[in-house]
Amino acid sequence: MEAVEHHEALSRFGHALSDPTRTRILLTLRRGPGYPSELAESIGVSRQILSNHLACLRGCGLVVAVPEGRRSRYELADRRIGHALDDLLGLVLAVDPSCCPTAAAEDCC
């Protein structure tokens, strides 16, 4: 893979993380699959807003929709995305431990 392709892949990941709602979706899905209505409720956004963010995350290649009858279950496209999020969060906390002094590490930032 050429450097330009690396740049594009990381830019997509950065774009996904640049929005707090998308970040919360990814952090929630790293714990396991979820349904849109449940995700919207747990994150505290409308289903329309959640739908727009899920479309963005699908476009970035980070989540997939798995059809289940009339519903779709969302999950990370690859389990390594969850590991990358854990590693990135650990790095952020190592560099700036004051970033979220009262939050649990898994829900931080």
Helix content: 55-70%
Oligomer: single chain
Strand order of the largest sheet: 1-2
User: Which second-level CATH architecture applies?
Assistant: Orthogonal Bundle
Mean pLDDT across the residues is 87
What is the gyration radius calculated from CA atoms?
Answer: 14 Å
Order of helices and strands: HHHHEEH
Strand element count = 2
Please report the first level of CATH classification, the CATH class: Mainly Alpha
User: Which secondary-structure class do the elements indicate?
Assistant: mainly alpha
CATH topology group: Arc Repressor Mutant, subunit A
The helix tally amounts to: 5
Could you explain how this protein is built, in words?
With 109 residues, this protein is mainly alpha-helical. It has a single domain (3-97), classed as Arc Repressor Mutant, subunit A (Orthogonal Bundle), CATH 1.10.10.10. Helices cover 58% and strands 11% of the residues. It is built from five helices and two strands. It has helices at residues 3-17, 20-29, 36-43, 47-59, 79-95, and strands spanning 63-68, 71-76. A two-stranded antiparallel ribbon has the order 1-2. Helix 3 (36-43) packs across helix 4. The model is unreliable at 104-109 (pLDDT under 50).
